[in-house]
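Sample 1 of the test manifest.
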Amino acid sequence: MSTVVKTHKLSKWYGRVLGVNDISLEITPGIKGLLGPNGAGKSTFLKIAAGQLKPNIGRMYLFGQDVRRRRKVFGRVGYCPEYDAFYLEMTGRQFLTAMLRLQGHPRAAAGEMALRALDKIGLTDRQDDIIKTYSLGMRQRLKIAQAFAHEPELLLLDEPLNGVDPVWRYRVMEMIRDYGRQGRTVIVSSHILAEIESLTDDIILIHQGQVFAQGDIHYIRDLIDTHPHQVFIRTARERELAGALAGEPAVSGIAFQEGGMMIRTTNRDTFFQRLMDCIVERQFDVEEITSPDDNLQAVFDYLIGR
Amino acid sequence: MAIKSKGYQVWDGRLLRRTFGWTPIFWQGVLQVFRKKRAKVLYIFAGMPLLLFAAIIYVMTKPELKVFSEFIREYGTDPKLFGAYFTNGFMIFILLLISVHAGASQIAGDRKSNAFALYFARPITKLDYVLGKLAVVMFYLLAFTLVPGLILILLKMMFTGSMDMDLQAAGATIVFPILVSLCFATMILAFSSLARSGKLVTVVLFVLYFASDIVQGILYGIFRSRWFHLLSLRENIQNFGWTIFGVNTRADEVLLGWLSGLVLLVLTAVFGGLLALRIRRMEA
C-alpha cells in the first residue's frame, strides 16, 4: 500500500519548548488515531502536515511531495484545526463557499459543494445565519465541514469531536469511518481514548514530542512484555479453574476478586489455548472472559509510564 | 476501485489548476469590506471630490457660466486641475479613511479569527495571501482615485468636445494614484500584520499621519525651511503630486517634489518589506 504521509527526522521547537522531536514515520491509507496526552505534540504534528508550521529540522511529505515546496498538494488535503477559525460575521454558507473558493473551485461549483457539506453536517436550516449565532457544537460541525467539503484524500482532524453533542458525535464518527472505508486516509487526534478506539485499532502514540508506538493496538499491547496481560474470568467454579491453571508456565499470578478472578499471563496466546482446553475438558460454565488491559487506555498508560 | 486498493501512485484524480491563487482572497475581501457598517456613508463622502471637480470642469468649459469663473481661476490648466484633484487635503484624508476602512482589519482580523489555519491548509502560497490582501486595499483606494481621475478626463473631453489633454497630466492621473495607493496599502497592511485588532491599527495610522504633520509644522514654523516637509506624509504626497503633474516649476520645488516621491517609494518599500517578513514568519 502506498505511503500517504511520510516524515523524516521531523523536529519542531517553539523557542525552548519542544513540539515534536525526530519523528520519522510512514502512514498508509485508512484511519489512524493520533494519541497522546496534552502537550505531547499531536497538534504540532498535524499543523506541520497541514502546512501551518515549518519544521525546524526534517521533512514532511504528503503523497510523496515535500509540503514546504509543493503547496498544490494541499488541494488533496482537508484540515480541521483544534481551535475555532472562523469569520464570525459570515453565514455558514458564505464561509464554506469562501473556503472552497480558496481551495480553487469555481464559484458555482463551490456553492453547490458548500450546500452538500452543510446538508451532510446538518446545518442546512441554519446556513444563512451568521456564525456568531451558532452554538459551540454547530461551529465544530462547520469546522469539520470545511475540512471535508472538497472531498480530500487526506483528512487531518485535530480533536474533531470537541463540543459535539452525542447524536452528532455518532454521525461524525460514522462519516469518518465511511471515509476510511473508501480507502482515504484520515488522521484523527484525540486525548479521549474511547473515541479513537471506536474509530480504529491503528494508532500512533505520541508522547513528549516523540512517537512511542505505531500500529495495531493489540499488536502493540503484545509487545509490552514488562506488563503481564490480565485476563478476568467469571465462573461459578472459579477455585477449581484456578487450580487447573495454577501450574501452567504461562500463568504468572492469580488473584480472586469480587465476582471473579484476575489471571496474569506473560504469554497471552499460550494461556488462552490452555484456558480453552481446560474449559472444554472439564466442562466449566464460564460467564465472562475479558482482558481489561487489552485496550487503548492500558496501552497508553503502560507506554507513558503512568 | 477504491483508492486504497489501487494505491496513490496511480491516482487518477485531477488537481484544480489556478493561475492566480490570490483572486478568491481578493473577491472575498472586497465583499467583506463592502458589507461593513457605515461603508456606504464613507463611499458617498469619498465620491464628493469627483462631483465637485466634475462641476468645476463643466463651469470651465461653458462660456455662459463665466460668472463663476472667478472661483475656479486657479484650476485653469489640466495640470492644475488634475493636480488639485489628487493633492487636496480632503482627498488625502479620504485616502487615509479608505485605507483604514479597507485594510486595518485585513490581516489583524485573520489573526484574531485564527484564519491562517484555514488559509495555509489550502493550496495557496503566502505570496498569494499578501497579493490578495493588497489587491483588496488597492481596489478601494483606486476606486476613489484612479477611476474618478479617468472619469474626470472623459468628462473634460465630453464637455469641451475635444480630445486635447495635457499628456503629462494624463499620465500623472494614472501613475500618481497608483503610487500613492500602493504606499497607503503597504503601510496599512504592515500595521495590520503587527496587531490583532483593527481598531488599534486605525489609531496607530491616524496618530502617525497627524503626528508627522504636526512635527513638520512645528519644525517649519521654527526654521522656515521647506525641507522639513519631507517629514510629513501629507506634504510629501502634495509635493510629489504638484511635481509629477507639472505644476511645480521652480528648481527647488521640483527637487523637493521628487525627493518627496522618493520618500513615498522608500516608505512603500519599507512597509512592503515589513509586511512580507511578517507574513513569511507567520505560523498558525
